Amino acid sequence: MEQVVIRTGLEKIKGKDISFDRTGSHTLILLIPIKLIGIEGLKVRKFSLLALFFSLVLVISACGTNKANPESESNNAEKQDTQTEDLLAKVKDEGKLLIGTEGTYPPFTFHDDKGELTGFDVEIVKEIAKRLDVEPVFMETQWDAMFAGLDSKRFDMVANQVGIRPDRQEKYDFSDPYITSAGVLIKHVDNEAVTSFENIEGLKAAQSMTSNYADIAKSHGAEIVGVEGFNQAIELINSKRADVTINDKLSFLDFKKHKPDAPVEIAATLDDASQSGLMFRKGSETLIDEVNKALKEIIEDGTYLEISEKWFGEDVLK
């Protein structure tokens, strides 16, 4: 069978009546049986071949445009990753630092009598933002939602006395510690049976579900009753719908300062003090470095101590 040879630039394709064969990195040989196009011998009209050739070129071009360029995609992905990781540049360009916080967790982040957001964490972050020359924008949400908000890039960081612990460090990055505190076991004053952490097995502990204090309560056999924050936990104990809560000592002392007649008290204190840091998504190194620099300045120039003594009467970093 006689054949007509047309050179193109297609991928290798093989068919029953029409076949392609690769002769180089970009050249293909199209082998078309003469009988298929109704040509006797080798007397082929030029315009017929030309028309066939351009028809094939159109098909080839259409196929070629759908083929992805791996190198181009790789470059674009790398560019996007770089932009994503340079969170500091984004914050600087926008002039805003987006901070996730509860706003219901005194004395760290809560609303005062005028309805304004305030607290130890709030003041520390405001001072950091000031030194970064950006505006702090606090976005209030529940404890559990803060992690999801950080994951979805709704926030640039979280400031809510988040404990630095190994399981969180697997998914998130933290600033240098900015507070040190011990956990305490809080109970109703009428509950004389609870004197230590060993006594809470089988009792109801009011805890934020993803907090490290919830893990401690579980490890001692307590049944977890989910709450949105410290205030709700205390309310459940006051109403005896929960037996205990394990929470931050500084939060409890601040609560008692404002409500000395509340029928709750400390039953026991954890031996190991924990440290808290500002929490970030993985890949936020550029912003974290600048935050740590600002935090170091705040500590060294005495600003940190002023804020700490205002809220707790002592240096809570030690």
Automatic annotation (TrEMBL):
Keywords of this entry: Lipoprotein, Palmitate, Signal
One Pfam short name: SBP_bac_3
Keyword hit for Ribosomal protein: no
InterPro entries linked: SBP_3_CS, Solute-binding_3/MltF_N
Gene Ontology, cellular component aspect: cell envelope
UniProt keyword Lipoprotein, yes or no: yes
PANTHER family referenced in this protein's UniProt entry, alphabetically: ABC TRANSPORTER EXTRACELLULAR-BINDING PROTEIN YCKB-RELATED, MEMBRANE-BOUND LYTIC MUREIN TRANSGLYCOSYLASE F
Family the UniProt entry places it in: Belongs to the bacterial solute-binding protein 3 family.
This protein's name: Amino acid ABC transporter substrate-binding protein
Organism phylogeny: Bacteria, Bacillati, Bacillota, Bacilli, Bacillales
